[in-house]
Amino acid sequence: MSHPCNNRRFQSRQERAGRRKPAPRHALTLVELVLASSLMVVMVGGLAVIATGVQMNFEYGESYGTTTQHARVVLERMTKTMYEATANASFPGFIVLADTAGSWQFPDTLVVWHPASGTPANPQGLPLYSELVIYCPNPAQPNQLLEITAPGNNATVPAVTDLTDWSSNIAVIKQSAGSQVVVLTTLVRTCSVPQSATQPLRGALRFVARLSPSAANWSSYQSGKLLFQQLSWPQNIYGANTALAQSWVRIELQLLPNPHVVETNPAWRVAMPYFSSAAIYYPMSR
Predict the structure, then answer these.
(1) Below-70 pLDDT ranges, the chain
(2) CA 244 to the chain's CA centroid
(3) Residues 6 or more apart from 213 whose CB is under 8 A from it?
């Protein structure tokens, strides 16, 4: 049992401790305030720079993602039409037409035999203009890629070898008010062509066609210079009277990112190239 005096001494210590005044707070000096403010400004500035960079990277990625989506939809639509094309010995399913400006050629028009009904008027002969699907840049706005059809034109097309007639007639269809036009994309890269007075800007679109056997080889066969089995049939698939021919087209397309994003940062005006191809096979007889 503790002594009462000891308890009183203990209590008095506690009372004295409770009556002690708290230590005075240290006031910030002017120098410390300036340093703290400077540090805060540096931190806020750094966060602003990081936020700006994140926003720019987001816009960049979103823009090129949209560009890639445009290319994917356009190429899938074009190749689907080509895979469904009609072909025979008179017309190989699709042909490529080129414009000439000075010493330059621009093979940027693809013509596909693709009847809307699925059944051509003359399966063994030449197509009608109304059965064609045309892919080309817009002559007035070359940043636009168009799909054009002429449903009211039931005239028969010329022979594939008559490229002059083909070019003039397709040019009329491109400008005709009766043609049906679908804008596939507005992001096509354009380039300047000083040699062309009528069309100084061209869309960056190119088609490359290849036939097996080639038109020259087929003409040599018809003139008796080559035998039927000597022609370059794909995978050497041929018989005594019939063989398998191939029509193949490669598509080269360049698209730019969204113009709004390019205006924000001109350094992003870099075209993205996209490629695709399609081939169809059809029988040819002696």
Answers:
(1) 1-28, 49, 51-63, 195-199, 259-269
(2) 32
(3) 221, 231, 232, 233, 245
At 8-33, the pLDDT tens digits run 554 555 555 555 555 555 556 777 77
Alpha-carbon distance 65 to 263, whole Å? 17
Q: Which residues make Cβ contacts (< 8 Å) with residue 36, sequence separation at least 6?
A: 28
Q: How far is CA 192 from CA 7, 36, 75, 200, 201, in A?
A: 103, 57, 24, 6, 5
Q: How high does pLDDT run on average in the chain?
A: 84
For 105, phi and psi rounded to 5 degrees?
-120, 140
Give the integer Cα–Cα distance in Å for 229 and 221.
10
SS3 state of residue 274:
strand
Rg (CA), the chain: 37
**Bridge partners of 238?**
243
User: Where are the chain's structural domains?
Assistant: 70-285
Question: Global pTM?
Answer: 0.77
Query: Are the beta carbons of 151 and 173 closer than 8 angstroms?
Result: no
